[in-house]
Structure formats: structure tokens, C-alpha cells
Specification:
Helices cover 55% and strands 7% of the residues. Helix 4 (84-93) packs across helix 7 (119-134) and helix 9 (204-212) packs antiparallel against helix 12 (259-285). It has helices spanning 15-28, 40-43, 53-66, 84-93, 98-102, 105-112, 119-134, 147-164, 204-212, 231-239, 242-254, 259-285, 288-317, and strands at residues 2-7, 33-38, 75-78, 139-142, 172-175. It is mainly α. It binds adenosine-5'-diphosphate and tryptophan (TRP).
């Protein structure tokens, strides 16, 4: 079983990314052949400042490696180091009906949020389909927000195979639903673009400050509180042991507990949770050549597979006059 997933480099990763996606990616490495990449071509659709792009790519790479990515076993690369994927995107584009892309909600949502309505943003799902199909991926672990993109991939693979003969493997969707949306410090979904994120490797002092700022309601200390409606409790769920969580739940419901106390403990637990990886993250930041080497080796392994699938697709679609 081949597992593949991508993550866009748009800065340092946050705990929503970790509990919502990375943790599952890292766990899947043990049982499956895993392929993970940094989706920098996709990130261009939001028009980043060119000066920020290289640092963003390396930040994601360092975060993944520090948190336990197995660089020998797992194939880990930067998307734009495997340009075959852009050629396959074009081949797929030519059999992708406009209507299929017009139905995609993420384009409309991103434009509504203020991203420019460029062609790359519109064609984003075709590039994602190429990512998945070029590596013959079986399982694509993604958050619920990506479900439609996997369905589009299956549709595109179907059109291509039906028109030009069996070429691509159909991926199964594998939606990560074990973790609800992780709230940010303002209570909305934690996101790099909302400025409400706590980074995985946030320096301790700013982590504490951010945790103390998490939005709560104004229930007085003495009164009972509903843990299920509390952003602090939602984060405690991710890092507290089941026993400790049960105690906090009781204390919320009993009353007599202030949110400040829960926040203090949350900050401690978050620091403890990621502490074992901090040292490694700092070492990597001082050895970027090593990180670049890991990505270069990953790209080499990825290209070997991508070029084979691309050759098959080129032939199926008729781009093989030399053989005629
Ligand atoms: P962001 O919104 O910060 O730009 P991305 O859209 O790049 O994050 O998400 C990368 C991965 O992390 C996706 O698989 C997504 O489902 C997951 N993810 C992002 N934010 C959260 C969150 N707040 N809660 C749970 N999962 C999240
Ligand atoms: N669109 C995905 C996201 O924003 C990232 C991504 C790009 C991806 N290509 C992929 C995920 C291929 C899975 C498979 O989270």
C-alpha cells in the first residue's frame, strides 16, 4: 500500500497542522510505503513573496524531520524538484471538463477570502491529481477539507483510463477524521492565514503568552463551565492524559476553577509534548545542508517513479511519434 500526502509551505507549521495531519502522516510510515512532499507549486497560487519561499520550504522540511520523519524509509521531497508533475498536469488538464473544476468549493472559498482569482488557483485540483496519480498512490491521508480534491482526482483518473486505456491507479480517499478542527487562540480554525496559530516550535515565552490570550467566555470563577464549548479544553484534549483530562472536565463542571489555571497547565503540557523534538529542530536549523540533501535524495527517488508514469501517460495520449 502506497501512502502519499502533501503539505503547502506557507511558513512554520502550527499545532493544528500537527494534530490534524502530520501526526497521522508520521504514524503511517511504520506500516506503509510513505511518500510525503512539500507542495511549493501549489503554494504559488497564493502569490507569496519570492524572498519567503525558500525559507518556508526549509521550515516545513525541518519540522517534519525533527518530529520523526524517517528519512531512510519515507520518500520526502519538494514538489518543484520533480517537474514531471507539471507536465502530467497539462496532459490531465486536456481531458478535465471545466465543469468539474467549476464545482470545486475551495477555489470559490479562497477567492472569497481575498486570494487573486488566477488560473493556477482554478487549476489547483488538476495539479493535485497529477501529484497523486504520478506516484500510483493508493491511500491519500488528508483533512476533510481536501475530500473534494480526492474525488476530482478519481474522476480525472477515470476519464483518462476510459479514453486512453488503463494508465493510472485509483486512489482511495483516506480522510483524517480522528481530530476535530483545532481552534486557534481567537477561537476560529487555527490557520497560518488568520494569525491565530501556535507554532509547533514556538519559543516557550511566546507560546505561554499566546496560550494566556486564548479567547474564553466570561463565566465567573465560581460558576460551572461547559468544557465542550471551551477553546482551552479543546487544546487540552490534544495533550493531556485521559486521567488528567477527566479531572479537568470535572473541575470545569464543578465550578470554582478559573480559565487562567487551565491555560497555565495547557502551556506546560504543550511545551512538554514537543520538548523531545526541540533539540533536533535546533540542530537542523544549524545544518540546512543536511536538510537540502535529504530533499535532494527524496527528489531523486520520486523522479524515478514519476518519470515512468509520465512516459506511460505520454504514450497513451499519443505523444510518442518517435515510436510510430
Ligand atoms: P493553514 O490553514 O494553516 O494554511 P493548511 O491548509 O496548509 O493549513 O493545512 C495543512 C494540513 O493541516 C491539512 O491537511 C489540514 O487539514 C490540516 N489542518 C490545518 N489547520 C488545521 C486545524 N486548525 N485543525 C485541524 N487540521 C488542520
Ligand atoms: N491541497 C493540499 C492542502 O492544502 C496539499 C496537497 C497538494 C496535497 N498536493 C497534494 C495533499 C496531494 C494530498 C495529496 O492541504
Amino acid at each position: 500500500m502506497r501512502v502519499l500526502s502533501g503539505i503547502q509551505p506557507s511558513g512554520k507549521l502550527h499545532i493544528g497542522n500537527f494534530f490534524g495531519a502530520m501526526r497521522q502522516h508520521l504514524a503511517l510510515q511504520a506500516q506503509h510505503e510513505s511518500f510525503y512532499f512539500i507542495a511549493d507549486y501549489h503554494a504559488l497560487t497564493s502569490n507569496p513573496n519570492p524572498a519567503d519561499v525558500p525559507g518556508n520550504v526549509l521550515d516545513v522540511a525541518m519540522d517534519y524531520i525533527a518530529l520523526g520523519l524517517d528519512t531512510d524509509k519515507t520518500v520526502f521531497w519538494c514538489q518543484s524538484d520533480v517537474p514531471e508533475v507539471t507536465e502530467l498536469t497539462w496532459l490531465l488538464s486536456c481531458i478535465t471538463p471545466m465543469g468539474l473544476l467549476q464545482r470545486c468549493t475551495s477555489y470559490k472559498e479562497k477567492v472569497a477570502q481575498g486570494l487573486s482569482a488566477n488560473h493556477g488557483l482554478f487549476a489547483y485540483p488538476v495539479l493535485q491529481a497529477a501529484d497523486i496519480l504520478i506516484f500510483n498512490s493508493n491511500l491519500v491521508p488528508v483533512g476533510a477539507d481536501q475530500k473534494q480534491h480526492i474525488e476530482v482526482t478519481r474522476d480525472i483518473a477515470g476519464y483518462f483510463n476510459n479514453t486512453f486505456g488503463e494508465t493510472f491507479v485509483f486512489p482511495d480517499e483516506h480522510i483524517i477524521e480522528s481530530v476535530a478542527v483545532v481552534p486557534g487562540i481567537d477561537g476560529r480554525k487555527m490557520s497560518k492565514s488568520y494569525g491565530n496559530a501556535i507554532e509547533i516550535f514556538e519559543p516557550q515565552s511566546s507560546l505561554k503568552k499566546k496560550v494566556m490570550k486564548i479567547v474564553t467566555d466570561s463565566t465567573p470563577v465560581d460558576e460551572p463551565k461547559d468544557p465542550q464549548k471551551c477553546n482551552v479544553f479543546a487544546l487540552l484534549k490534544l495533550v493531556a492524559s485521559p486521567d488528567e483530562l477527566a479531572q479537568w472536565e470535572k473541575r470545569y463542571r464543578d465550578g470554582g476553577m478559573g480559565y487562567g489555571e487551565a491555560k497555565k497547565r495547557l502551556a506546560e503540557l504543550l511545551i512538554e509534548y514537543f520538548e523531545p523534538y526541540r533539540q533536533k529542530r535546533a540542530e537542523l536549523a544549524n545544518n540546512k545542508d543536511y536538510v537540502k540533501e535529504v530533499l535532494a535524495k527524496g527528489a531523486q527517488r520520486a523522479r524515478a517513479i514519476a518519470s515512468q508514469t509520465l512516459a506511460k501517460a505520454r504514450k497513451a495520449i499519443g505523444l510518442n511519434y518517435r515510436e510510430s
